[in-house]
Amino acid sequence: MKTFGGPAVLLDRSDINTDEIIPAKYLTEITKIALKPHLLEDLLLDGKPFDSHSKAMEEASVVITRENFGCGSSREHAVWAFEVNDINVVVASSFARIFRQNMFNCGILAMELSEQDIDTIFSMSGDITLAVDMENERVTVSSNDKGQDDFECSFSLNAYDKSLVSAGGWLAYADANY
Amino acid sequence: MGQSITQKIFKSHLRDTPTPENMVLDLDVVLCHEITTPIAIMDLLEKGMDRVFDPGKIKAVIDHVTPAKDSKTAAQGKIMRDWAKRHNIKDFFDVGENGVCHALFPEKGFIRPGYTVIMGDSHTCTHGAFGAFAAGVGTTDLEVGILKGVCTFRTPVSMKVEIKGSLQTGVSAKDVILAIIKKLTVNGATDRVIEFVGPLVDSMNMAARMTLCNMAVEAGATSGLCLPDRVTAEYLWPFIKDEYTTIDAAVADFTKWHSDSDAEYVEVIEFDVSDLLPQVTHGYKPDHVKDIPEMEGTPVDQIYIGSCTNGRIEDLRESANILKGKKLAAGVRGIVTPATPTIYSQALDEGLIKIFMDSGFCVLNPTCGACLGMSSGVLAENEVCASTTNRNFNGRMGKGGMVHLMSPASAAAAAITGTITDPRKFLV
Ligand code: SF4
Hints:
Chain A is α/β, with parallel strands linked by helices. Chain A has helices at about 20, 55-60, 75-85, 95-105, 115-125, 160-165, 170-175; strands spanning about 5-10, 45, 50, 60-65, 90, 110, 130-135, 140-145, 150-155.
């Protein structure tokens, strides 16, 4: 099974929608890689435009956010935009249904943590890295700030979602089973 | 314990239960449009899986950007066109016959009570108005649907929204659903199916029920649906008259999909619309909803009447009724997009198109157009649109633009004054 985790970017907002993740004007692309420069292009944090081309974004493999992430349209382009930017985990306290399903269908991890755990992560100082132990369903959050203790918590994966991730996505699974 | 309509549909279409929480369903219809399907087709081609499970159960349309606006959208259309031809998909609708998917497919009689329906489009929940389980999916789910005719869903959880009371003049289904979304919030129905029931729903025509179900996803719902009844049967009659001897027989048969009286719901919400005022959104979320009088006077640059939410003939009548004999306010642009060619043609016959044109509106061919900010009415930065569509997300109709969602009557009122206006002023 592939490994999940790495440096994280924090998006302190709820209800981030798929139009903000990838605007509709890029839906005319028929390759995933063309979406790469446009990830989170229209995102507003605190009412201000988010810098989607920062160094932190470039290095990130994890995005941590709050409630109802990925609401709005069904476009799988939103998941692909993360995929081609090498993001392999999105952590949120809840996801919109279609987005969450699209993540697992593509073999990317949509990790749900409690609001409390998310609050703890948002309160940590320094730059944050996430280490995911898929087998034991544990996650360790560490910081480059020496004074900041690591934070550990558990998550749970639906057995079916897990089998999609290990089968390499839903298409491979369905082709083998139906 | 009795069963809900959704449980009945799931049970009758169950192919597999990979885990206790997941159900793989056989699909009756897989709907396709040119934004999310070409990339699925290309992926299947690349994987050597360019097959379809049943060409008769696949329905496809080019609707989001049509006629093509540039080389890229032209290529998307071509991929669809070639694919439909290659696989003998007869129900494929191209320029001249095409219209907004969630208005066109019901009009063709493709959706029936008890059906399972998916599409790579979040507003697929619209088709729940027919008592079908219809859900939006991503491209991978769509690929599997096309290839195998199956889709997985979590075991359904239903909530009931019971709507009663009678609507004041100038208040319509759009106002009702906006008020419901305000109450539920944008994720109040996540992973749930909303059953819209009650005397008001019973009295609604199919167009109003489609408006209601269309926006269920804006509260996070997997789908929204209405129980199939006489209204459903009468709408579908031209398509089902060979299957039933009489409309009564169809109505009686449809009751097999009705939820049992002891079915279980995670939540039941009662909603009385008697005092409901015209509604409008502010901000960038569809649950940011206010009574129109609170927003009265907010200036707008553009009016957009159309979309899968409110581009049906009933909606055009509602707008034209207010616009008749009046002009667009100076400096305001008006755009109307009948959702399908049939609706367009009917609007011509009824003189509605003339009313729109006389008041200064631009009449567009059936398309999604400005609804998703891809063509035909994209906003400039800081411009404001009074729109009958379903999403007011930041950037939805163009980067830096603001969309205020409202009913066709309210959009027409805004057209006349150039500001957000209570449509009841024009209805006394
Ligand atoms: S009209 Fe708008 S919401 Fe409806 S299908 Fe088209 S783009 Fe989507």
